[in-house]
Fold this protein.
Amino acid sequence: MSDSSPVTVWVFLGEDAQWPSGVFRTRERAESWIKAGKLTGMLTEYPLDTGVYDWAIEHGHFQPRAAHQQTPSFVGRFTTACQEHFHYAEGDPD
């Protein structure tokens, strides 16, 4: 029997950062690291082996309505607030 639940990771993006500073298998591990470092930023759950653009379409969170919304530039920058995410200020949930 196969497990149909999606495999995900948790990615931390610090305040004003351009690149993630941590990737974790569990939210608990991520939050422990964030708290220990008194970090400010956002922790977001990402699906593995798929792009967020494709994930959002597959789950009904987004539907391209214009030609530019299917361009490589758009797909490469795509994000959605539908992903599970949490904000932190100085290590504590914000």
Notes: The first helix runs from residue 27 to 37.
